[in-house]
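Re-run requested by the PI after the first attempt was lost when the workstation crashed. Everything re-entered from the original request form. Ligand of interest: adenosine monophosphate.
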Amino acid sequence: MGLEIVLLGPPGSGKGTQAKRIARARKLAHISTGDILRSHIEKGTDLGEQARPYMERGLLVPDELVCAIVARRTVEPDCVQGYLLDGFPRSLNQAKVLQELLSKSDGSLDVAINLDVADSELVERLTARRSCPRCGAIYNMKFNPPSRIPYCDVEGDENIVLMQRPDDKEETVMERLRVYHETAAPILEYYEAQGLLRPVRGTHLGSDGVYAKVEEILAVIETERPV
Ligand code: AMP
């Protein structure tokens, strides 16, 4: 049975960075609903066109669109070893849909890790975030800038100018945080009631510090799982 992880946390809490690292270390599929939606928008698919107006305003994309993405993605071959969901669930309904999907395949969620960071730090992190449109590398112009601003450091992409995600502009960031606080509590309560929730405090903690805490949690989960 694969290891199934949900990574929760407000926008800017470092979910994407941590998710990539955890998935690589444990050979899990990394499923970021935000990345999948952005790639639909880039390709101009119907789904992308439906999602775009919500994403541009920092609002949640309707559950049926996002749940359909997750239902399709989690049955792909690279998910057999397990997967890590980044940015899903974002509503109680999505959490319940995930549980149904898992039980249909005789699976169950192993852990829901919640990255908790103070709002003031989130605003600072998000508005300074830039990423490489080619390789997806993420930088922070304040805390982790590239060596040659405004270019990517990754070999082969040294001439690519880093970009700001449209929804990382300050007004949209405030709206995304408002939406997060409105929707997160019932999801956290849902996983808490199932004994699956593991909080990680990330305020004033760099990416390595957060990763070390996440690793500790996963090491315990792995020893407790039935083989
Ligand atoms: P993220 O990259 O996870 O910050 O997501 C960026 C945007 O994509 C969000 O602000 C939402 O508009 C949309 N989105 C991503 N995941 C979901 C989800 N699970 N449910 C609804 N909307 C989502």
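Saved to the shared folder this time. The beta strands are 3-8, 29-32, 82-86, 111-116, 129-131, 138-140, 197-201.
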